[in-house]
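=== RUN LOG ===
request id: a7f3
mode: sequence -> structure
chains: 1
length: 326
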Amino acid sequence: MIVSKPNLPEFMAAPAGSLPAIDSGFLCALDHLGVIEASGDDAAGFLHNQLTNDILGLEQGHAELAGYCSPKGRLLATLLVWRHADQIFMALPCDVLPSFLKRLQMFVLRSKVTLKDVSDQWLMIGAATKPSDSAPAMWRCATDEHGTRIRVPDAGALQRWLWIGQPENARQPWTAWSAQLPTVPASIWRWSEIIAGLPQVVETTHEQFVPQMINFELVGGVNFKKGCYPGQEIVARSQYLGKTKRRTLLAFTSDTTASAGVEVFSVNDPDQPCGMVVNAEVGPDGRVACLVELKMEARAGIVHLRSVNGATLEFGELPYALNAET
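=== RESULT ===
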């Protein structure tokens, strides 16, 4: 279930009816995402010791992905992290934000850091546009008096951008983009994340995956040179001992009930699941795009949703290469 924030400004309401053509881009309010603010002298060091990526080395003007693992190395949350002034911000799905924040606060102890849910103080906008040679590098941030704009990975031929700012400043970027781009529901942004090969842990996949199982190190979410964090030994062992036996692939299906957490089955081994849907969203063509975590040996056979009698998955191409070992 996708949990959304209430009380979006009226001008950012999701449109009703059929989807417009999005070949040239689209615009949407990302009301399914919340924001946590970390502040205080020890904020960067504290998060560096908790998350899978290098937070101490995160500079102004850059954003990065990071994960939060259980002691067993299983992902409890996946985050987008960036700095602004003296604060560090983390964006993640609303349905996992409360449990993530509660668990993180348990380890603050005497550290000089304050963690708080500021979702009601910030709005997020997603925009996809035609390619531009002048676009900044991936994960670059630009901040002005209105808010912060982050270049995020492309989805197919479309360049993608995130805007984060306070509600009273949202009208300016929204008006500028909406003059050129059709407005769509947030589900289309989530679909574009799947096309971009960017996995996101939600409530139904909480604690299901070691980062490598969902390609999280391949999209820049894990730094193997930093110090310890919860589950670090298991994540490192998965990286350096033997080849990865499970990966996440892009797939498509006509079954519109496909959703995160649904198991998948191979005809070559019908009695037990060979993987799980990580994320799924109906795309503009009516098909469901999925990121599917899978035993690599299952790629040789036909894979179905829920059982070998379920809908067939048609595998596509991710925008990045899997490790040669797989």
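=== NOTES ===
The chain has five helices and 16 strands.
Residues 186-195 form the longest helix (10 residues).
=== END ===
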